[in-house]
Hints:
Elements: E1 2-8, E2 15-21, H1 26-30, E3 31-34, E4 38-44, H2 50-59, H3 64-74, E5 81-87, E6 92-96, E7 105-109, E8 112-116, H4 124-135, H5 141-154, E9 164-170, E10 176-183, H6 188-199, H7 203-211
Antiparallel strand pairs: 1-2, 1-8, 2-9, 3-4, 4-5, 5-6, 7-8, 9-10
Helix pairs in contact: 2-3, 4-5, 5-6
Amino acid sequence: MTFSLVARCSRSGQFAVAVSSSSPAVAARCAFARAGVGAVTTQNVTDPRLGPWALDLMEAGASAPEARDIIVRTCTFPSYRQMTLIDREGRTALWSGEKSLGTNADFQGVNVVSAGNLLASADVPETIVRSFEQSGPDMELGQRVVMAMQAGVAAGGEAGPVRSAGMLVVDREAWPLADLRVDWEDDPITRLATLWSVWKPQMHDYVTRCLNPEAAPSYGVPGDE
């Protein structure tokens, strides 16, 4: 019911996750990232506990493949789980259990990994990865991720209609640089792209407002003259 990617920007060190599904609130259950540590998806028959667990392992020093191996070896019902992981060094890892649903596939690239289940085509994860790699690190990570997800839709996406999507981007601070979610829309990835276009020009201003309000631009809203 899901296709996704996790990615790292080699220029900024940011991490991102994007995910889409036929079920509602997919990002709340499937997308996890931590500044300076890495990013994870947990999907298929989803166990949301695996995301924070993998991030804790990587924060403690495990590589993405090592964190994956520990979880697969010790979690409950690993055959039902599908995961993608990327760590602070850009190392990636995948897991698709034998009970992953329908047409399922995964693909790893440089600083990016994608996986999906109940796909229209097994080529979807590779298409997502290739799109990400072709966009280049000079572009904002969030933009690269949105474009990669749009490429996944163009390659067929899920076998059935998707209804929700989300994107999470973390930078140097403890809070997300971007945390955008779309639930129960007919075309959630297009809507996600629209939200990103609204948020992108101002997202760094909100970091400045926290760290140095005297240097921050005005809010530009009525009453803030």
